[in-house]
Write a structure and sequence with these properties.
single chain; mainly beta; Maltoporin, Chain A; 42 strands; transport; TonB-dependent receptor; transmembrane beta strand; ion transport
Amino acid sequence: MRLTIRHFPLHRIAAAVLALSGGAMGTAQAQTESGAPAAGPIQDAGVVTVSARRRPENLQDVPVSVTAFGGDQLSKQGTPDITALALSIPNTTLKASRATNSTLTAFIRGVGQQDPLAGFEAGVGIYLDDIYLARPQAAVTDIYDVERIEVLRGPQGTLYGRNTIGGAVKYVTRKLGSKTDIRARLTLGDYSQREAVLTASTPISDAVRVGGSIARFKRDGYGRNLVTGAHNYDKDMTAARLSAEFTPTPELFIRLAGDATDDDSSPRNGHRVTVGRTSGAQILSNVYDTRANLTRALGHEQEVKAHGWSALLEYAVSPQLSVKSVTAARRDKSYAPIDFDSLDMTDFHVPALYKNKQFSQEFQLTYTGDKVQGVAGVYYIDANAYNIFDTVLAGAVPSSTYTLGDIDTKAWAVFADANYKVNEALSFSLGGRYTVDQREASVLRQIYLGLNGSPAMGNPNAVMFRTDTDFTHGELEREDKKFTPKVGLAYKASANQNIYASWARGFKGGGFDPRMNVVGTKISNATARAGFLPETIDSLELGLKSSYNNNRILTNIALFDSKYKDVQIPGSVEVDTNGDGRPDSFAGVTTNAGKAKIRGIELEASAKLTNALSVTGMYSHINADFTQYLTSQLVGGVPALVNMANERYFQNTPKNSANLRATYDMALPMMGRGGTFSVSGSASYKDETSQFEYASVLDQPAYTLYDLSLTWTSADNKIRAGLHGKNLGDKRYRTGGYVFPNLGKEGVLTAFYGAPRTVSATLEYRF
């Protein structure tokens, strides 16, 4: 494997990381009962235990690329939501999708999914307590009531209910304690940030415990809508979680849980980076300000509601053998007014409605013996993703294009993964999964005259011009079947060094693009009915996990080499639907045009330099290159497939990423309670990032973010006060955008940005 690094000398970074650092790989520092930092080896002080292989294991013993964050660690660093974790995870991008507040875009090692529309499966699986979230809406989760978060890199399928081709993010909530526990957290910050979280649990009897959390997150916008006066990039969210746990016998554990979120934030509108083509509207000086005038969809203000319930049963048949059942259902609904042009006019508007629902059932059998450990299971999911939206476009002929996508997915799988210990040093693992994905889709695309929308979106008097696509009679069906194996080998070269190698195949089923335009893009009905094909990835990984100096220094190194085939590449293109030579609409074009090679290295480490000073760091490098990217072009007047691989890029995959954090803990009595004062500062680097598969002015150049946290924790761990500064350099960095320069009268080149400098104060009290 040959790695080329443009900006960084690898040997220097590797030396620095190995000597000092360690990215957030789960070394959450424990505390003694007095609140002072625990002395002695890091491992003895509490390395995070993870369940990456469906059983509790020390992170350093797991032959898997996994990064873990403990709840206490997240609290001390003032981590606001799940997207902030990406700064310290190798080769990982987690962000709010463009024009949304709570829809998640996730990429790991070059694999992910940017478009949240129905019909597209996630490349990175998001799990809430072992429950796979089929859709990305409402998946930008605020950090509360959490025990830990685990991020696994590489294909997952032999251990998890739903196969995911790129990786998995697991959000693990706390189990209820044996004593009454009440906790409160208050946060105040600039931009009028005010947040409150209340968590409580209590035992009702020896066999029954109940608990719940309610959270309120509110903040003014980083900018303003200069037309309506509303905030832009604000937050207005309420969340709640309830659970009841039963242990009728020592062998049986039952957990019933429910959760709900309601996001009433204002529409997140983008920043135009070009002057209006016909109006001459100038570029605004504040990138968080907007002139967007679309505020409603189907008569509703922007809103995202999501809720779900689950039932978990665990039964220990014997000390070695246990069975588990996970039953869950979820629903969400989003009203999304998207103003592409971001101007005080109706030029390019997309009011949309998203509705999703899912039901899943998983059965697991886990065995933990002296020689053999493993898990086997069956999984079933029945999910529906439904979206409707209008594409309202000004131009020579003003029009409103109505699009409906209604996608049903039924998938089932059997999976198993077993580990055999040859001796105390050598073990090997073997796993496999057989997956069946069935999809049925309805797609309808109709053009109406004028800018007032379609009948389905609230204009009963609309006049239809024509139907471009109509597959609403059961024509769109496909079934994809795949066996995906995994093999691994682990060798404990010494008590402090764990070497491993693994090979795994990942798989993601095919589907149908709900934005397909048969007339405008001139595709045949047969091609449309076929949809796009599944994609696969073969990933080889070599890793070394080590500890030095009586476990005061921990290092993780991983090399990976992946071959990505039939890469699903969804995109939106400008189309000319009336043949006048000018684009007058846009449509979805999803192809399997790609083959790619993805190679990289990941370094994570942590060093406890003294009992008070610890340093962690992460560095990752990735070469993700298309080797084939076929597009249809006219060659000599004849349509032909042309390989454009040299002009195509992996989106949301910066070549180099790094993070360095230093934390100093000191005993500092306050208010007569004793305790520990901690200073924690970090710098996070991201290389140049492509927003799309092609070069664009919206691509984000390399940037660095600086954070600082000051916290005091009382000796009895009942009180924690913190002051947290994020993006202290006040860096403006783009996280996404839209590029349709020829559509509408004004053209669209709109960018969305990450948060500016923010400062907040938190107070946590445990009764």
